[in-house]
Amino acid sequence: MAPIQNPFALQKPLKLSICYTETCNLFCQHCYADCSPEKASAELNSEEWGRFLDEIAELGVVYLYIEGGEPFHRPDFLPFLASASNRFFTEIRTNGTLITRDVTARLKEIGVGIVLVDILSPHAEVHDSFTGTQGSHARACEAVTYLVEAGIETQLLTILNRRNADDLQGYIDLAQRLGVKTAGVLRPYPLGRFKYRWNEVSLSLDEMHAALDSLRLPAGMKLMQSWHPNDGNSCWQMAAVNAFGDSIGCAYLREYVNYGNIKNVSFMETWDHPLYRELRSGQVKETCPSCSSSQGSHGGCRSTAYAFHGAWDAPDPFDRTLNHGVDLRVLPEWLLQPRPKPPGSPR
Ligand code: SF4
Ligand code: SF4
């Protein structure tokens, strides 16, 4: 059978995601970036990030998604954001704890597009135990209030796991109380510190769907969720650069790929990397009808397909149609190695 391919093909990126820093004021048990408070000297400095903004503006990028680490933890972040928001639609993912009223006023002035705040549970004690920081829930909720009051588009995000699945409705209700109109429920990824706690916190696919299916959305509330077919294979349209300048295609591929460093080569040289081209082509072994009808892409997320099967064109086990009995509560052994490399990988 001929491989299934995505009919879309971008000649250059329109949307780009950057991990501005791998530092953070919190120390979450589940941090995908394995953040620590101190900046590693190899992180891109302000000038290097500035030059990169010029380069991608020239390329025609229109949408910049900024995450970390915690972007607001780097003292040079607001000037960077101001410069970025002049040229791109900007979206920031943050733990919210560093967003004061003054910072909110500055964000309004800058004209930021969307702010996404991570809230791991409606219950402060559960959220704070995840973040390892007492009071982080209260501060995140305060930040959401400031942002909503300022009229900045604000959304909540949570990562579904064993410790918050029972009260997912409480999370939606909290979003409503805070005045937020979009709440995201994201699938967990076996990355960073999260993978070392996977056995303790992960759910089976049925348990994840049961939690999602039980939700009652208040009028006007939009649910954003990352299970197929709502969230298809988006590799064809993604570009990402980490805090050190490595072009990694997507933040969720951060441990598996490196297409080159933008300090040494142009972004478009990394875009041309054979593996990057392969992932953008959307070639997968298997798909189901709802893929193309919902997204025009096939096979679900490449990060989790690779994590569980060690192959880029494998089926995404978070997809009910393509799961084929994979128990999502059990990680393949190779993922827990310090530098994960699947069995038989030529890398
Ligand atoms: S708040 Fe985000 S960046 Fe900071 S440690 Fe937690 S998961 Fe990592
Ligand atoms: S790796 Fe997954 S999340 Fe990232 S762009 Fe590809 S499909 Fe989307």
TrEMBL record:
Cofactor: [4Fe-4S] cluster
Superkingdom: Bacteria
UniProt keyword annotation of Chaperone present: no
Family annotation (InterPro entries): 4Fe4S-binding_SPASM_dom, Aldolase_TIM, PqqE-like, Radical_SAM_PqqE_MftC-like, rSAM, rSAM_sf
Residue ranges of coiled coil: none
Keyword Cell membrane: no
Keywords tagged on the record: 4Fe-4S, Iron, Iron-sulfur, Metal-binding, S-adenosyl-L-methionine
Database matches in Pfam families: Radical_SAM, SPASM
Domain Radical SAM core, residue spans: 8-229
Stored PANTHER family: PQQA PEPTIDE CYCLASE (PTHR11228:SF7), RADICAL SAM DOMAIN PROTEIN (PTHR11228)
Designated name of the protein: Radical SAM protein
